[in-house]
Design brief:
Blueprint lengths: L15 H5 L4 E6 L4 H14 L4 E5 L9 H16 L5 E5 L13 H21 L4 E5 L2 H5 L5 H9 L6 E5 L5 H6 L2 E5 L19
Length: 204
């Protein structure tokens, strides 16, 4: 795609403008870091366009304060006070369940994840946001807590012009199939390879 020119133009009856403005399903997957970071960067662009941003974290602990959360909540307040950018909502789905799954049982976590997905379905049907970030959403799908086919059908039939970004490792092939844009983060090198732990400002 040199200089943003498509490699081919389908014979779909759409104008260039209509084709350009179609809503996208975007998947960031792969083993390396940067999946959520890239999604939040895209959400920042959307905020600048005045889009209504909805962030839904599925695996991060409720006690884990990521830098992007603070930044986006600040941008949300700025919008409320000045009208600049767009409104922002940030939600942690579930009661603080995380990688270690310390709080609650497996059934509790599965129920919380499904409840979170049901809320997103409701919002999609109501067209409440212009851009949704479903952070780490591949994991509830992988663990069987949320039905992949149901997610695919909801994304495929969502109304209006709503962009959806899904992040996380091991994206299901059915999710990749319905997506318009898929990026796989492949590790070449990582500081942890040489014993360096995550650091403030880089990992959080």
């Amino acid at each position: 795609m040199p200089q943003g020119v498509p490699a081919s133009v389908p014979d779909d009856g759409l104008t260039t403008r209509q084709r350009r403005n179609r809503p996208l399903v975007i998947v960031h997957t792969g083993v390396n870091k940067g999946k959520s970071t890239a999604a939040f960067g895209l959400a920042l662009r959307g905020w600048n366009q005045g889009w209504r941003i909805g962030v839904f974290q599925f695996v991060k602990s409720a006690k884990w304060k990521v830098g992007e959360e603070t930044a986006f909540k600040t941008l949300g307040r700025l919008h409320e006070e000045t009208g600049e950018g767009g409104p922002v909502e940030w939600h942690k789905m579930g009661e603080g369940w995380s990688w270690s799954r310390k709080a609650g049982s497996e059934e509790d976590h599965a129920r919380d994840a499904l409840d979170g997905w049901r809320e997103i379905q409701r919002r999609l049907a109501a067209e409440e946001h212009d851009l949704y970030v479903l952070d780490e959403f591949t994991y509830p799908l992988k663990w069987g807590w949320v039905d992949v086919d149901e997610v695919v059908e909801t994304l495929r039939t969502r109304p209006g012009r709503q962009h959806v970004i899904i992040t996380g490792r091991d994206a299901d092939p059915r999710l990749i199939e319905v997506a318009d844009l898929v990026t796989e983060m492949t590790k070449i090198k990582h500081p942890m390879d040489t014993g360096q732990k995550g650091q403030r400002g880089i990992e959080w």
